[in-house]
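Lab meeting, item 3. Inverse folding demo.
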């Protein structure tokens, strides 16, 4: 893939050539893109991909995967973001092209740490599972072949010869279901998980796997290939990051929020200093509530806490003058000399508002940045309570916030699954009895 600053060079392909480039609505992403695209398209594709993967994550913990509600909502999201999702739709070249290129862009951004790789792999697997579930049966064999999977569908005669053995080895299959179910001949090493669970019929080094079970094998293959590809991508990342056009884009993508836009301009001046205490207990996300409580109790925060909380307060509407007054009053309560505050701390506050140094108007930290960078040490209060707190301490904190035991259990389950942002959103929804987007996502 090559990049240019202007418009991308359009590839004029005939219908047959388009079908050859992207024959299916799902793929294993085995070959990287080879065409030229603009940096604008690079960023737009990546942002849409992240929006899609965030939706996959949210739907996966809000609904039972595979249910009608889950399927319809995920299909609606794919349609809205203009990604491919069904096999027989017309004009699928551009959605499939976008799907292919955007996967590799986000792969570049999300190969940088173990947490990012784990999250990326899980969402991509769930997306593949959904697409496979709606793939027409007559297209499955072609997909398997193009994905280099040596799984061969049995003919009706071959199925009949082994009907008793296959049904006996697959408890959920009955004779009536078996007639309609495709069965695949799979090399034994690819079906080890089914073999361990005694859920598959083996013969002469091959497993005979019903269609309902083949998806588990496909996902295992996809996970293994994608995990290896991410490791290889991470090794070559320094070369990619040497391109000064790409480095800031990739860094931004791995820490970006892709939901509703809360612009600073709309927020400025909409809260007063005397509202902060009440807002902190009613509406602040736990990470900011924790920082506010520590500040009020200790009359001081270390640099990491001041940056995270200060930019959050700026984001929800505190002006520069209000911010200076707020921090100065609190630090003076901690017996700090006013002159020391003016000399040692006010500069950093003005700097965050773009009034000093490079005059950069800084935005609040995204959730991903809080979760993945600068973890708190002893004596620190910044970070994400869902990511950085011991589960028992988190449970106690939620109890102190008057969250019911049943809801605490739901939140802790999300945390256990590493769904930290979704856990935070769930907390907000539970405490406000609404479905909304957290303000901490700024």
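The presenter then showed the designed sequence:
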């Amino acid at each position: 893939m090559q990049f240019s600053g202007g418009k991308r060079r359009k590839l004029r392909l005939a219908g047959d050539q388009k079908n050859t480039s992207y024959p299916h609505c799902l793929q294993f992403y085995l070959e990287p893109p080879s065409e030229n695209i603009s940096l604008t398209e690079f960023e737009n594709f990546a942002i849409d991909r992240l929006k899609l993967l965030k939706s996959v994550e949210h739907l996966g913990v809000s609904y039972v995967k595979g249910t009608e509600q889950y399927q319809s909502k995920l299909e609606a999201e794919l349609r809205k973001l203009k990604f491919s999702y069904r096999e027989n739709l017309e004009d699928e070249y551009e959605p499939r092209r976008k799907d292919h290129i955007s996967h590799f862009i986000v792969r570049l951004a999300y190969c940088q740490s173990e947490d990012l790789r784990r999250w990326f792999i899980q969402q991509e697997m769930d997306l593949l599972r959904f697409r496979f579930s709606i793939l027409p049966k007559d297209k499955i064999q072609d997909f398997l072949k193009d994905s280099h999977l040596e799984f061969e569908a049995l003919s009706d005669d071959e199925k009949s010869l082994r009907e008793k053995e296959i049904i006996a080895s697959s408890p959920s299959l009955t004779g009536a279901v078996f007639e309609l179910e495709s069965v695949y001949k799979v090399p034994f090493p690819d079906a080890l998980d089914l073999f361990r669970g005694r859920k598959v019929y083996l013969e002469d080094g091959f497993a005979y796997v019903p269609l309902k079970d083949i998806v588990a094998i496909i996902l295992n293959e996809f996970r293994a290939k994608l995990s290896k590809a991410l490791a290889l991508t991470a090794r070559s990342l320094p070369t990619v990051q040497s391109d000064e056009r790409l480095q800031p884009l990739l860094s931004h993508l791995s820490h970006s929020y892709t939901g509703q836009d809360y612009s600073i301009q709309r927020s400025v001046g909409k809260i007063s200093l005397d509202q902060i205490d009440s807002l902190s207990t009613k509406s602040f996300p736990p990470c900011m509530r924790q920082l506010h409580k520590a500040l009020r109790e200790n009359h001081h925060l270390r640099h990491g806490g001041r940056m995270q909380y200060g930019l959050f307060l700026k984001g929800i509407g505190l002006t520069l003058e209000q911010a200076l007054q707020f921090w100065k009053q609190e630090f003076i309560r901690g017996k700090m000399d006013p002159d020391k505050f003016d000399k040692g701390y006010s500069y950093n506050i003005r700097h965050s508002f773009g009034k000093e140094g490079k005059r950069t108007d800084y935005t609040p930290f995204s959730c991903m940045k809080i979760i993945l960078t600068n973890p708190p040490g002893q004596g620190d209060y910044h970070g994400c309570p869902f990511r950085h707190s011991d589960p028992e301490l988190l449970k106690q904190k939620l109890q102190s916030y008057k969250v019911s035991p049943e809801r605490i259990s739901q939140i802790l389950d999300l945390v256990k699954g590493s769904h930290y942002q979704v856990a935070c959103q769930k907390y907000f929804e539970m405490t406000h009895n609404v479905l909304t987007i957290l303000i901490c996502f700024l």
